[in-house]
Automatic annotation (TrEMBL):
This is L-lysine 2,3-aminomutase. PANTHER family: L-LYSINE 2,3-AMINOMUTASE, LYSINE 2,3-AMINOMUTASE-RELATED. The modification N6-(pyridoxal phosphate)lysine is found at residue 319. Belongs to the radical SAM superfamily. KamA family. Coiled coil: none annotated. InterPro entries: Aldolase_TIM, EpmB, Lys_aminomutase/Glu_NH3_mut, rSAM, rSAM_sf. [4Fe-4S] cluster binds at residues 107, 111, 114. The keyword S-adenosyl-L-methionine applies. Pfam families: Radical_SAM. It catalyses: L-lysine = D-beta-lysine. It comes from Stenotrophomonas ginsengisoli. Residues 93-316 form the Radical SAM core domain. CDD domains: Radical_SAM.
């Protein structure tokens, strides 16, 4: 079922605006921006957008606009240093003890602020050669005890393909933890099917699944159902969000996000400052404003509901707390 819904995703930003009753000019739609980074939005995610609202926080995350064409100093093609941290084909190692696998270039939704929107997925895919080079790279480094499945979105792969990878990783004795970063349970919750749940239950390590939701409106009944199913497997559910101008840059929005994600069984984890990737400057919130916002959240919510505000700096040994 989820594959059919995947294929039905909206790829035409004009149709997206028409469906929401919005004017192309008023929305500042850009065909050039859409050509540089194509539009892809699942129908279920569109259903959560407010009709007639140009400032809908979900729409702002996926609509290609003229602001993306601005060339802004300090914004680059590889803001987080993925290229410099390459260890093998599709393997990135930035931090001690952890290796990230770029499992695929596919995503169910194309977020306009994506820090890998310029990434060379054709050349850097860990699945090449049935995972052989990537798995060998990890097997040959006993300092690695945590593997991170990323992309693209790893859950865009068939569960059988994921199982093929984890069966190989299970033969490496020094791996102690598995982490999966995914947006699919939020934007395409139908991906959480019986086969995926069985795979998660059978994994031989403690598993953390890190979803990505930036606004409380991303959670509807289908997402709550998906999170409940994921929790039933015994894995840990965390949420990473990005602080985005016009999307969640208010204390009210951030508190609602934390409270809603926790109600769905997902613990707030990180609130990241924007990665300064070319084409995303219009989403940036200053560090000073970010600090004010997180202080406001901290004053209002219990500590376990307050995500860690941080920024990724290329070449640093860890995320930088702010």
């Amino acid at each position: 079922m989820w594959q059919q819904l995947w294929r039905q995703a909206e790829r035409d930003p004009r149709r997206l605006l028409a469906r929401l009753g919005l004017d192309e000019a008023a929305a500042r739609l850009s065909e050039e921006a859409a050509a540089q980074f194509i539009t892809r939005v699942p129908q279920g995610f569109i259903n959560r957008m407010r009709r007639g609202d140009l400032n809908d926080p979900l729409l702002r995350q996926v609509l290609p606009v003229t602001d993306e064409l601005a060339v802004v100093p300090g914004f680059s093609l590889d803001a987080v240093g993925d290229g410099a941290a390459r260890k093998a084909t599709g393997v990135i190692q930035k931090y001690q003890g952890r290796a990230l696998l770029v499992t695929t270039g596919s995503c169910a939704v194309h977020c306009r602020y994506c820090f890998r929107r310029h990434f060379d997925y054709a050349g850097e895919n860990a699945a090449r050669g049935n995972w052989a080079e990537a798995v060998a790279s990890i097997a040959n480094d006993p300092s690695i005890d945590e593997v991170i499945l990323s992309g693209g979105d790893p859950l865009s792969l068939l569960t059988s393909k994921l199982a093929e990878l984890t069966d190989l990783l299970a033969q490496i004795p020094h791996i102690r933890r598995l982490r999966i970063h995914t947006r699919l349970p939020v934007v395409l919750p139908e991906r959480v099917d019986a086969e995926l749940l069985d795979w998660l239950r059978a994994l031989p390590w403690p598993v953390s699944l890190v979803i990505h939701a930036n606004h409380a409106n991303e959670f509807d009944a289908s997402v709550f159902e998906a999170m409940n199913a994921l929790r039933s497997t015994g894995i840990t559910l965390l949420n990473e969000a990005v602080l985005l101008a016009g999307v969640n840059d208010s204390v009210d929005a951030l508190c609602a996000l934390s409270e809603t994600s926790f109600a769905a069984g997902v613990l707030p984890y990180y609130l990241f400052q924007l990665d300064r990737v070319q084409g995303t400057a219009h989403f940036e919130v200053s560090d000073e404003r970010a600090a004010q916002l997180i202080a406001g959240v901290r004053a209002r919510l219990s500590g376990y509901l307050v995500p860690r505000l941080a920024r990724e700096i290329a070449g640093e040994a860890s995320k930088r707390p702010l």
